[in-house]
Design goal:
It is a single chain. By secondary structure, this protein is an alpha+beta fold. 33% of the residues lie in helices and 30% in strands. A 5-stranded mixed barrel has the order 1-3-5-6-7. Helix 4 packs across helix 6. The chain is globular. The relative contact order is 0.17.
Length: 216
C-alpha cells in the first residue's frame, strides 16, 4: 500500500553557524532587515521560527557572498524574552522545541527563507543506563560548578545553553546539553541532532567525553 505523503507546515527559517537542540537556550542579536520583521511578527503572534545550521554562506547577507545552504534537519525555536534596545536592533532569547525536516524551501523578498517542514517526533523519554551514568553525573557537576561561580541569570547572559527544569535522568536531555557544551565542530553537532535514538546520541557523547578526558 502506498504511504500517504508526510504532513508539512510552513515555517520561516533562520540559518545560523551553529546548531540549536531541543530544550536548548540561544540568545540572538538581530539587525538584518529580513529578520527584524520576522522576529517582530513571531513575538507578537507567539509563532515560532526554525533554526537551521549553515553548510554554505554566512549568517549575514553580503554582496558577492556564497548562496546560503543549510542542513535539512533543524529545530523549532520559540521566543522566551524580547527586547528592542534601539531602533534596528532586537535582542531575544529563544528555546529549542521540536526538530523538523525540510521538504522544500525558497528564498523570498529581502532574503528571508521559507520552508515546508515535517515535524520530527520528540525523543522518547529514556532513563540513563548505568553504563552511561557517568555522563549525567559529569554534567550535573559542571552545572553545579557554574552555578557556584555565577548566578543562573549570568549564565544565560553568557549564552550558556541550559536552564531549569534539569533532567539528568533522561538520555536525550543529557546528550543534548553535552552537545551544546562540548567544543566540537558544527557538522558533528548536526549529525548528533539528526540521530533519532537518544540512547545512541548519548553513547556517542560518552565516547567524546572519554576522548577529551571530561568523564571516564
Amino acid at each position: 500500500m502506498q504511504q500517504p505523503p508526510p504532513t508539512t507546515t510552513p515555517l520561516p527559517l533562520f540559518p545560523l553557524g551553529t546548531v540549536l537542540f531541543p530544550g536548548g537556550f540561544m540568545p540572538l542579536r538581530i539587525f538584518e532587515v529580513r529578520y527584524l520583521d520576522l522576529i517582530n511578527k513571531c513575538y507578537r503572534s507567539g509563532e515560532p521560527f526554525g533554526v537551521v545550521s549553515l553548510t554554505q554562506g554566512s549568517e549575514v547577507l553580503r554582496a558577492g557572498a556564497q548562496t546560503e545552504r543549510f542542513a535539512e534537519v533543524g529545530t523549532v525555536a520559540r521566543i522566551r524574552s524580547f527586547d528592542s534596545p534601539q531602533a534596528g536592533l532586537l535582542q531575544i532569547e529563544c528555546v529549542g522545541a521540536q526538530r523538523f525536516r525540510i521538504h522544500s524551501s525558497a528564498q523570498q523578498q529581502y532574503g528571508l527563507w521559507m520552508a515546508q517542514v515535517e515535524k520530527i517526533e520528540d525523543d522518547v523519554a529514556l532513563a540513563v543506563p548505568d553504563d552511561l551514568r557517568h555522563a549525567a553525573v559529569a554534567l550535573q557537576r559542571l552545572v553545579d560548578t557554574l552555578a557556584e561561580r555565577r548566578s543562573m541569570q549570568a549564565m544565560h547572559d553568557m549564552g550558556l545553553p541550559i536552564y531549569k527544569p534539569y533532567r539528568f535522568d533522561d538520555c536525550g536531555w543529557v546528550a543534548n546539553r553535552w552537545c551544546e557544551f562540548l567544543p566540537i565542530q558544527t557538522q558533528a553537532k548536526q549529525r548528533l541532532l539528526e540521530l533519532d535514538s537518544p540512547l545512541m546520541r548519548l553513547e556517542l557523547v560518552s565516547d567524546l567525553l572519554a576522548h577529551t578526558g571530561i568523564a571516564e
